[in-house]
């Protein structure tokens, strides 16, 4: 193995600080704008029909370009891509904060998505090639997993504080100091192994097919939420996504230097991680949205109080990730952490199906949040690590992009799917109970809670499916020995080491 693959970077833990800070900024941005959206809509005169584009413009650019961003990181260098992503994200955030009209805000959100698609896979792949010793890798990914899991809820808190006490524009401006500190630290501290790049020519047809396919898929679910699942545009977008993504797979199997080497996703352990993590995010994204509305509209919480109500979930995620997942990852098989973690999270969801108009936060919501946090934190940590465990350094960027893609696409699908389910259940409840309702306002709240509860039942099932997939597909041993990053040879050789009885010996969200 080359010296660069085994040498230990003395500044690696300092590098982790800046990599984690960048990841926190990206994850925060996924939820912080949700809290500020009503204020921004009123200030800029955005219509109800167009307000969703503040979220969708970001999701389309981010989800559609993630694979491209991962390949760019592999080709041109992860550190360079990481810094460009940070600078671009900060500039786009400044543009969003200064937005004078709807078009300017939507353009800024799309730009944030573009640079986020460069930044996110570069951050995770830097982590993968920087921490190659098993115990250190477990600790580093534990910290990273806690940030990835808890950052969304932190965004709800920060968004509430900034919106309530300052101005919605600060939910954009707050990204700038994050980016400046992370970029400065990256220049001074981060060192990328010299032999970890993939110098192969960029696969332009793959970029076009993957980007259009993922954009069609994400946009299809967005249209399903507004137009219905059987509407012509919705079905057309889903059909286009299927054709484009199938063509992408065929192209990738033929070209010499594919955008997504099929060896990255064909290995059962990584396939299990991508599928189970995407499903888990489907359940979690919908939950954040429902509970935000439930706490504010039904329970009457302020934006700040709503954010603070999510703190126990954050604490549970950090505890599950750093104290359970990271400590056990080097001794316990990943599936024995991931599957039980998703089951525990499903139990938390199951508790939340019992919400009502007068539900007590300490008696029901608090224990549910703790279960959700502990379960997701425990499952996320080995999943994030295993997503790049077993690929060569030259493929680390695209493997990282795949786990980000599964989360981003999962989030978009989850929001649209569960929102549609909740809206249908709400309408059906209101129609069937209209005759005996004591008041219209009470019926509206009861219908809303019924809709949320119905959607959360679906989330329970989705999390249990994620657990089943993780337990069935992820069969590698614990990650307690050898180097997790492959240094040479083809991907199939490295993947062959991922047997059922032993940890992966020489391998790399």
From TrEMBL:
Residues 481-502 are annotated as: Disordered. The chain crosses the membrane at residues 15-37, 52-70, 82-100, 106-129, 141-162, 168-190, 202-222, 228-251, 272-295, 301-324, 336-355, 361-384, 455-474. The keyword Transport applies. InterPro entries: EmrB-like, MFS, MFS_dom, MFS_trans_sf, Sugar_transporter_CS. One of its GO terms (molecular function) is transmembrane transporter activity. CDD domains: MFS_MMR_MDR_like. Keywords: Antibiotic resistance, Cell membrane, Membrane, Transmembrane, Transmembrane helix, Transport. Its main location: membrane. GO terms for cellular component: plasma membrane. This is MFS transporter. It comes from Streptomyces piniterrae.
């Amino acid at each position: 193995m080359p010296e660069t693959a085994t040498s230990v970077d003395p500044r690696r833990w300092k590098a982790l600080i800046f990599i984690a800070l960048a990841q926190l900024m990206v994850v925060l941005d996924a939820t912080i704008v949700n809290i500020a959206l009503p204020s921004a809509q009123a200030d800029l005169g955005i219509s109800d029909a167009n307000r969703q584009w503040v979220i969708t413009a970001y999701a389309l650019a981010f989800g559609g370009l993630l694979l491209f961003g991962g390949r760019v990181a592999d080709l041109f260098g992860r550190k360079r891509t990481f810094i460009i992503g940070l600078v671009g994200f900060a500039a786009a955030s400044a543009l969003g904060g200064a937005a004078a009209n709807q078009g300017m805000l939507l353009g800024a959100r799309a730009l944030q998505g573009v640079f986020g698609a460069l930044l996110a896979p570069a951050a995770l792949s830097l982590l993968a090639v920087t921490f190659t010793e098993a115990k250190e890798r477990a600790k580093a990914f534990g910290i990273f997993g806690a940030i990835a899991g808890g950052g969304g809820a932190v965004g709800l808190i920060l968004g509430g504080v900034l919106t309530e006490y300052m101005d919605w524009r600060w939910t954009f401006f707050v990204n700038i100091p994050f980016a400046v500190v992370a970029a400065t630290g990256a220049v001074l501290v981060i060192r990328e192994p010299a032999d970890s790049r993939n110098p192969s020519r960029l696969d332009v047809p793959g970029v076009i097919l993957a980007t259009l396919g993922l954009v069609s898929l994400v946009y299809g679910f967005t249209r399903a939420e507004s137009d219905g699942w059987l509407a012509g545009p919705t079905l057309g977008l889903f059909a286009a996504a299927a054709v484009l993504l199938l063509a992408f797979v065929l192209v990738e199997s033929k070209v010499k230097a594919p955008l997504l080497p099929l060896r990255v996703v064909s290995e059962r352990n990584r396939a299990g991680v991508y599928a189970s993590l995407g499903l888990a995010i489907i359940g979690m994204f919908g939950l954040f949205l429902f509970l935000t509305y439930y706490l504010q509209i039904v329970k009457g919480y302020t934006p700040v109080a709503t954010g603070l109500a999510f703190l126990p979930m954050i604490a549970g995620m950090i505890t599950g990730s750093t104290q359970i997942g990271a400590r056990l990852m080097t001794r316990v098989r990943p599936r024995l952490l991931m599957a039980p973690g998703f089951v525990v999270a499903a139990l938390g969801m199951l508790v939340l199906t019992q919400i009502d108009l007068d539900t007590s936060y300490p008696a029901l919501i608090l224990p549910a949040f703790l279960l959700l946090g502990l379960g997701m934190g425990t499952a996320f940590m080995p999943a994030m690590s295993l997503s790049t465990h077993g690929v060569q350094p030259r493929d680390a960027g695209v493997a990282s992009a795949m786990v980000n893609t599964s989360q981003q696409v999962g989030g978009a699908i989850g929001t649209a799917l569960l929102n549609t389910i909740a809206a249908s259940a709400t309408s059906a409840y209101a129609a069937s109970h209209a005759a005996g309702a004591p008041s219209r306002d009470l019926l509206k709240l009861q219908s809303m809670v019924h809709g949320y509860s119905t959607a959360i039942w679906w989330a329970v099932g989705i999390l249990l499916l994620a657990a089943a997939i993780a337990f069935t597909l992820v069969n590698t041993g614990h990650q307690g020995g050898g180097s997790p990053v492959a240094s040479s040879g083809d991907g199939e050789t490295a993947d062959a080491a991922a047997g059922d009885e032993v940890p992966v010996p020489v391998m790399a969200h």
